[in-house]
Specification:
The chain is α/β, with parallel strands linked by helices. The protein contains five helices and ten strands. α2 crosses α5.
């Protein structure tokens, strides 16, 4: 089994000579558009099984590993996703750079449905999730620096790739991670807005923190699929979300291909 590298052994933003890219798909992203499958992996982990098989293939001439966070065809709700197994499995395959795709609700005025967002900060409102690999069994305490929860170099590359591809996106945002699976009340969204949150989602944590513990460069691409509770005139519906997801999935695929092109041959 691949040795786990904790964040204080290798700096979270340290440049790695070879980039091995993983993509974790969220709601509505059951497969990665344009990925030419080559192999399927189901790694064993000390934390149980990941959400599903990890599909290895070529995208824009680069090797990519894709995992559906919620499983396929089974649907795993956000509070029951085995985030530790997912991240461990990715690292065991040599992945050292992950782009996470998240469906979110828009809170601040700029975060309208259909908008693409590359967040730079987050606030964690989740509870009860297995949120760390560190159980103290080796007699050491590890306080991993999480000042910048998303890898700066990978975020910069995503923003440059968006510009290359002519894709409009928000370059900064605070992601509020909530427990789910229910949607929020209007009062909860008002509280989150007062806290500084721009978007709200259910899967951003502990995924980002676990990646940091493993020394994996991690960034998120958020698709705003609805206005958050109390901010729109219409009830929030899955049908409305699916329509936007289907449209934006192609844009995300274009962004990923542009990112890989920047990685070089």
């Amino acid at each position: 089994m691949t040795r786990v590298i904790i964040g204080d052994e290798i700096g979270a933003n340290e440049t790695r000579p070879v980039k091995s890219v993983g993509v974790i798909g969220g709601t509505g992203i059951a497969e990665l558009e344009g990925l030419a499958p080559a192999a399927t992996h189901s790694p064993d982990t000390p934390f149980g099984a990941p959400s599903g098989p990890i599909h290895e293939g070529l995208l824009a001439g680069h090797r990519v590993y894709f995992l559906q966070r919620h499983g396929s065809p089974a649907v795993i709700p956000p509070h029951l996703v085995n985030y530790r197994a997912n991240l461990w499995a990715m690292q065991s395959l040599g992945v050292n750079e992950i782009v996470a795709i998240n469906a979110v609700g828009g809170i601040s005025p700029a975060m309208q449905p259909g908008r693409l967002v590359i967040p730079d900060q987050l606030i964690d409102y989740t509870w009860g999730r297995e949120h760390t690999f560190d159980d103290g069994s080796d007699g050491q305490l590890r306080h991993v620096d999480f000042t910048e929860p998303y890898d700066r170099a990978l975020r910069t590359a995503l923003l440059a790739a968006a510009a290359d591809a002519g894709i409009a996106c928000e370059s900064t945002a605070v992601y509020g991670a909530v427990q789910g699976p229910r949607l929020e009340t209007a009062a909860e969204i008002r509280r989150m807005a007062a806290d500084g949150c721009d978007v709200v989602g259910m899967t951003g944590m502990p995924e980002a923190a676990l990646a940091r513990e493993l020394g994996i460069a991690y960034a998120s691409v958020c698709m705003v699929v609805n206005l958050a509770a109390g901010l729109g005139d219409l009830p929030i519906s899955m049908a409305m979300m699916r329509e936007i997801l289907q449209r934006e999935a192609g844009v995300v695929g274009k962004l990923l291909r542009s990112l890989l092109a920047r990685h070089g041959p």
